[in-house]
Predict the 3D structure of the following.
Amino acid sequence: MDSFRKWLEEQGAAPEFCAEYDRLHAAYEAAQSDMTLEESFAGLDAMLEKLEDSGLPLEEALKLYQQGMELLAKCNDKIDLVEKQILTVNEEGELSEF
């Protein structure tokens, strides 16, 4: 259990709220591994949905925002890598890297 989750319990957060945090935190942790871009985007979408909740405590919103920015940076790195690997065909019909 991470320190923020422990803090939520100490503050008496509702079990449903803690479960939602666990779900989002699991999505973030999974994103740190070798998730596909599609899976990473799904994790970002889940984080955005939660951030749009007007009842979200400021501390949790900040934590989700930070996690989302880290995940977004990883997505950008993956996209940059793919762009560099794209091959193009030149006028002579030869393949060259983009």
About this structure: The first strand starts at residue 87 and ends at 89. The mean pLDDT is 81. The longest helix spans residues 58-85.
